[in-house]
From TrEMBL:
One of its GO terms (biological process) is cobalamin biosynthetic process. This is Nicotinate-nucleotide--dimethylbenzimidazole phosphoribosyltransferase. The gene is cobT. It holds the Pfam family DBI_PRT. Coiled coil: none annotated. It catalyses: 5,6-dimethylbenzimidazole + nicotinate beta-D-ribonucleotide = alpha-ribazole 5'-phosphate + nicotinate + H(+). HAMAP family: CobT. Signal peptide: none annotated. Belongs to the CobT family. Pathway: Nucleoside biosynthesis; alpha-ribazole biosynthesis; alpha-ribazole from 5,6-dimethylbenzimidazole: step 1/2. Its EC number is 2.4.2.21.
Length: 352
């Protein structure tokens, strides 16, 4: 049995009976029933995932994966590919937005090179799990082989497993890669059946000419490669990215370890779509952090059946939305664990 097959077999649906018990506990708190809205939903979801009606406060980590994309050759980004590696080094030094927000949230940051164009220094503080020096240009053939996808997915599974063994219980995912909104748009078009022009957006801030090139590249890639929307591995191989496949693996590995997984924006959402095609039961482990400014993200959220916690016009990636949302998840568990009940506080309960 392969690692991927074995991990998928271990993923269980969150236990809704535990969610119901947690809601009954919340109903005993000194507040009108359901008056904390989605904070209560979060507490119940995490309880159902963790398998206990009163989970411990979370140990948090965010996995940020990066890679380059051959389709960047088609003029789909406002930045050169060298920026991917430069930003990885910025992450390693602690100077990026994700580092600042993760420090605020008390979350560990794990940085992974899945295949940037130029290898980084081994001592850079970045984990090297390189599948290659960027994917191939999917307008000329598949971005990856099926074997490369499985290798990348299993890297993500491995990292999630390591973090689970280290005591992490709340896992976030983030991304970096010039050209990756093009790959994410292509994957979203595959999984939703929506045409490229209704999915692709301006990414890093491209102009009208580059947006037209981006839409055309996606259209040509889909026509040439014909990815199977029912096969997450095939779709990733045809038009995905090393980091997107790796993040799908983090989701699968985290779900197998009964972790809640907070997904960031558009690129991470496309990884979640692929992961739930590979293992549909992983869907119940996902928490959508925010609604990205990217047009395609709305389609991703609809396809996943999730409602985001935040809507801040974010479009940076890196996992920034995910770590912001981790604060809300932790707040929900503080409410569950620390708020007084009507009985303990000597407050009359109206029953509503």
């Amino acid at each position: 049995m392969s690692t991927l097959t074995e991990i998928c077999s271990r993923i269980k649906e969150p236990d809704q009976r535990i969610a119901e018990r947690t809601q009954r506990l919340l109903d005993l708190k000194t507040k009108p029933r359901r008056s904390l809205g989605r904070l209560e939903d979060l507490a119940c979801q995490v309880a159902a995932i963790r398998g206990t009606s009163v989970p411990d406060l979370p140990q948090k980590a965010i996995v940020v994966m990066a890679a380059d994309h051959g389709v960047a050759e088609e003029g789909v980004s406002a930045y050169p590919q060298e920026v991917t590696g430069q930003m990885l080094l910025n992450f390693a030094r602690g100077g990026a937005a994700i580092n600042v927000l993760a420090r605020h949230a008390g979350a560990r940051v794990v940085i992974v090179d899945m295949g940037v164009k130029a290898p980084l220094c081994a001592a850079s503080g970045v984990r090297a799990h390189r599948i290659g020096s960027g994917t191939r240009n999917f307008t000329r053939g598949p971005a990856m082989t099926r074997e490369e996808v499985i290798t990348a997915v299993e890297v993500g599974i491995q990292i999630a497993g390591e973090l689970a063994r280290d005591g992490v219980t709340l896992l976030g995912i983030g991304d970096m890669g010039i050209g990756n909104t093009t790959a994410a748009s292509a994957l979203t078009a595959v999984f939703t059946g929506v045409p490229p022009e209704d999915v692709a957006d301006r990414g890093t801030g491209i102009d009208d000419v580059a947006l037209k090139q981006k839409i055309d590249a996606i259209r040509r890639g889909l026509l040439l490669n014909r990815p199977d929307p029912q096969d997450g591995v095939d779709a990733l191989a045809k038009v995905g990215g090393f980091e997107i496949a790796g993040l799908a693996g983090v989701i699968l590995g985290g779900a197998a370890s009964r972790m809640a997984i907070v997904i960031d924006g558009f690129i991470c959402g496309s990884a979640a779509l692929a992961a739930t095609r590979i293992a549909p039961r992983a869907a119940g482990h996902l928490i959508a952090s925010h609604r990205s400014a990217e047009a395609g993200h709305r389609l991703v959220l609809q396809a996943l059946g999730t409602t985001p916690l935040l809507d801040l016009d974010l479009r940076l990636g890196e996992g920034t939305g995910a770590v912001l949302a981790m604060n809300l998840v932790e707040a929900a568990l503080h409410i569950l664990r620390e708020m007084a009940t009507f009985t303990s506080a000597g407050v009359n309960d109206s029953g509503v």
